[in-house]
Amino acid sequence: MPKGAEKQNLLGLSQDGLERLFEGLGEKPFRARQLMQWMYQRGVVDFDEMTDLSKKLRARLSESSEIRLPSELSMHHSSDGTVKWLFSSGFGQAIETVFIPEASRGTLCISSQVGCALDCAFCATGAQGFNRNLTAAEILGQVWYAMQALPPRANGEPAVTNVVFMGMGEPLANYRNVLPVIELLISDWSYGLSRRRVTVSTSGIVPHIDKLADDCNVSLAVSLHAPNDALRNRLVPINKLHPIDELLDACWRYAKQHSNRFITFEYVMLRGVNDSIAHADELAGLLKGKPAKINLIPFNPFDGNDFARSSAETIRHFQERLRGHDLVATTRKTRGDDIDAACGQLAGKVSDRVRVRLSEKNIRMATA
Ligand code: SAH
Ligand code: SF4
């Protein structure tokens, strides 16, 4: 390897990529699987400890490659069991990861970008603007840390049973790096999660919903938040590029391609904005009879934002109204309030940021 050249980071590299690397070293492709098991199942990141690889191979690997984890800045425990990590993303910036333990599962909420360009009106990440895409190593590194830090569940399963792309950033705007991460999450040689237990949440980048349907049938969550284009244009500006009709058509194509598996529609409850009974009826009109479930999210306030959370009673009435239309509707419990770990509050620490906001050109650039 030429002097001064950066070593290749093997964390987050796809199985194909690793197989090519070993072939280049004159080794059999199955070495890739061995390496994946060391990195992800045993949490080993030092080539020297990988005792079923020959000494010579280990030396050659460390000449040209490394296993580089994101650096952990802090780990906070909430009184309700929620855990939040802050990882450095360089240049004084940070991204966040949240673990939410429940009786039946342990969900890790991971970030895919530093900031976000899509500028949804009620989102703390959007309020910071976009800085950059995370690499596959930085995304998967969040899972690696959580798997290492958290004790196994009572039944012996690893602590993290589910992974959701609901942290900072829009995962489908960083498709190139998110796809290999999804593949590694579900691969039997790494974390081996079932496809149903990996959820990609998107505000609606339609072409990439279709791509995801072709590439990988994990669970899909769509941030709908409004039942008509006029309101959604205001709350979720990507709607101006991909309006509700277009978005829902992509959702039904996605569901159809995956044996009509239900799609989750997220709907943030904003007082006096999208939470009336008329809104519930309009929403039901869009989703009735479709493979859809609705998850109502009580708005989580943050500084510098004028929205307010709908009252518990309004949320209950809205949910009941949806159920009256024979729709599956649930309300998300707010967790980790004392450590600012709730949905939409993940702001990390983005100083020195480049404020890039939604424009057709930026979206094309960010999703290329
Ligand atoms: N960018 C993706 C995933 C990250 S956001 C997306 O938008 O789907 C994860 C979820 O949190 C989304 O449904 C988002 O709309 C919601 N959210 C954002 N800000 C929020 C807030 N302040 N309160 C409650 N939910 C919020
Ligand atoms: Fe980005 Fe999602 Fe926040 Fe919208 S809600 S600004 S898409 S992170």
Write the layout of secondary structure elements.
Elements: E1 8-9, H1 15-24, H2 30-41, H3 55-64, E2 65-66, E3 72-77, E4 83-90, E5 93-101, E6 106-109, E7 113-115, H4 124-127, E8 130-133, H5 136-149, E9 162-165, H6 175-186, E10 198-202, H7 206-215, E11 219-223, H8 229-235, H9 244-257, E12 263-269, H10 277-287, E13 292-298, H11 312-324, E14 328-331, H12 360-367
Parallel strand pairs: 1-2, 6-9, 9-10, 10-11, 11-12, 12-13, 13-14
Antiparallel strand pairs: 3-4, 4-5, 5-6, 7-8
Helix pairs in contact: 1-2, 5-6, 7-9, 10-11
S-adenosyl-L-homocysteine (SAH) binds next to strand 10 and strand 12.
**In the CATH hierarchy, what is the architecture of the largest domain at level 2?**
Alpha-Beta Barrel
Which word captures the global form? elongated
What's the number of extended β-strand segments? 14
Which whole number gives the mean pLDDT? 91
The helical percent reads: 25-40%
User: What is the CATH C-level name of the largest domain?
Assistant: Alpha Beta
Question: What is the total number of structural domains?
Answer: 2
Instruction: Tell me the fraction of residues in β-strands, as a range.
Output: 15-25%
What gap, in angstroms, lies between the N and C termini? 30 Å
In terms of quaternary structure, the protein is single chain
Number of helices: 12
Write the CATH fold name of the largest domain.
TIM Barrel
List ligands, each type once: S-adenosyl-L-homocysteine, iron/sulfur cluster
How do the SSEs run, as a string of H and E?
Answer: EHHHEEEEEEHEHEHEHEHHEHEHEH
Q: Taking strands numbered 1, 2, ... along the chain, how are they ordered across the largest sheet? A: 3-4-5-6-9-10-11-12-13-14
Largest beta sheet, briefly? 10 strands, mixed
